[in-house]
Amino acid sequence: ESQLQTLLAKAEVLQKKNILKEALKILYKAEQLALEYENYNYLLIILNQKLSLFISGRFVDEIKQYVEKEMSSSIKYAGSIKNTMEYRNLFMQSHLLLFEFYNSGNANKGEIKKILGSELLTSADKALAFRSKSAYYAIHTACSIMQLEDNEKEFERQREWINYLVKDADKLEQRGEIYLAAISNLFALSWKIKRRIPEFESLYEQAKNFYMNLSSKRKTENITVRFIMIANNLMAQYLEEGLHKEALNTWKKIEPSVTGLTLPSATKKVLHFLLFNCYFLEGNYHEALKWLIKIIHAKDIARLDVQTCARIMQLVVHYELGNYELLPYLAKQAERFLLKQNHFSAFEKSLVRFFEKKLSVPKSKKERAVEFLDQKKQLNTLLKDPASLTASEIFDYFSWFDSKIENRRVVEVLRERTEN
Q1: What is the pLDDT of residue 363?
Q2: Which residues contact 236 (CB under 8 A, 6 or more apart)?
Q3: DSSP per-residue letters across 336-393
Q4: Which residue, of 21, 44, 211, 389, is most buried by count of CB atoms within 10 Å of its CB?
Q5: At a CB cut-off of 8 Å and minimum separation 6, what does 306 contact?
Q6: pTM of the model as a whole
């Protein structure tokens, strides 16, 4: 846009000086640039500036051509702007619901259905401009994540979008942030789909190769953040299968890129939670606690779901460290936070009370195993509640419970569950 602004300013100065032919050359150059970037707002401005120039220069032939041809272009550009604005409106609606979903764990299915009922979302062909098309795919992804259904269909839809972006190789670097966001969305959509690690590693390598080959001019902070988010996604997939060493190795590779970078609060909290998981599965509870504390001490409430889980996991870590006397105090702290944020599902309440009432008193392994088994059964009955189901997805509490019932390492339980 800065290039277009510069060209239009130059053309305006030349027009005022009555150097009309040079001004017209610059306007034609600006028009080609705006067409390349599908910037229809600027195209309308350029057409108006051209008309003003034709009139001031009394260019009769050019005015006739404008009336015959360029008026239809104006109508087309105006239609594309309207189309883009309509998609942008749907995008904002869907992503506002998505932010609320991440914070509350509840999906507003009525509003989601209303958005998906729009004629604009029936086909990608309804999108008349690149920005509209980008919004079309982003809206479908957001709605699919919230509904937790049809993810296989959306996974393929997102692949279709990536293929579309890659096909236009000349513009891929220019659209780098959108391209990396599309790859990141594939990871997000895999949440309920059985995909294997090699496929995710391939996606990560695809993103890494693109990022590493970008020119320094294109390697902006936003692009780097997008790449970090993809690395986060790969780490999450590793951890889901109990591969904490592989997740930690991924972190070590991207750590230099993160140093000195101002990550968005939500991305930072997710990264810290992933690193907590790495050390927790390793059995290094002191290091795991360090990363939890970073989340708990955050002053904003971005990713409230992660902050909530961090407070419950603080109870888990102190239990593992044998700090039973701290559990009642920390449980009260967690309860106060969750009540204040209006984010206290039945699942979370049952967990917090379990640590406060049962686990704060030392008992034999046999007695403890019985308590864990009873609590696991109770938690299972609570999963019919959508908010409780969402809370149970952020950390695999059931694998941890099984590790206590069976007297095994939680990482072994996770790997066995994945293999089966």
Answers
A1: 85
A2: 187, 247, 274
A3: HHHHHTT---HHHHHHHHHHHHTTTS---HHHHHHHHHHHHHHHHHGGGSHHHHHHHH
A4: 211
A5: 269, 270, 273, 295, 394
A6: 0.78
CA gap 230, 224 in Å, rounded? 10
Evaluate whether residue 198 is within a structural domain. no
Asked, for residue 327, whether it belongs to a domain, the answer is: yes
Q: Which of 58, 85, 102 is the last residue of a domain?
A: 58
Instruction: Please give the pLDDT value at position 289.
Output: 97
- Give tens-digit pLDDT for 187-204: 888 765 666 788 889 999
Q: How many domains does the chain have?
A: 2
Domain hosting residue 406, numbered range = 296-420
Q: What is the pLDDT of residue 187?
A: 84
In a domain, 340, yes or no: yes
Residue 220 φ then ψ, to 5°: -75, 170
Residue 248 within a domain: no
Whether 105 contacts 305, CB under 8 Å = yes
Low-confidence ranges of the chain (pLDDT < 50): none
DSSP 418: H
Contact 363, 404 (CB under 8 A): no
Whole-number pLDDT of residue 99: 84
Whether the Cβ atoms of residue 346 and residue 318 lie closer than 8 Å to each other: no
Q: To the nearest 5 percent, what fractions of the chain are helix, strand and coil?
A: 80, 0, 20
193 three-class SS: coil
CA distance 70 to 76: 10
As given in the structure block, the two tokens for residue 295 are 């989340």
- Distances, alpha carbon 55 to alpha carbons 22, 32, 59, in Å: 16, 22, 6
DSSP string, 201-218: HHHHHHHHHHHHTS-TTT
**Tally of helices (H runs) and strands (E runs) in the chain:** 22, 0
pLDDT of residue 191: 63
C-alpha 337, offset from chain centre: 25
With beta carbons less than 8 A apart as the criterion, state whether 61 and 42 touch. no
| pLDDT tens digits, one per residue of 221-264 | 889 999 999 999 999 989 988 899 999 999 999 998 888 888 88
What six digits make up the tokens of 324? 């039973």
Write out 238-265 in H/E/C secondary structure.
HHHCCCHHHHHHHHHHHHHHHCCCCCCH
Residue 170 and residue 84: Cα distance in Å, rounded?
23
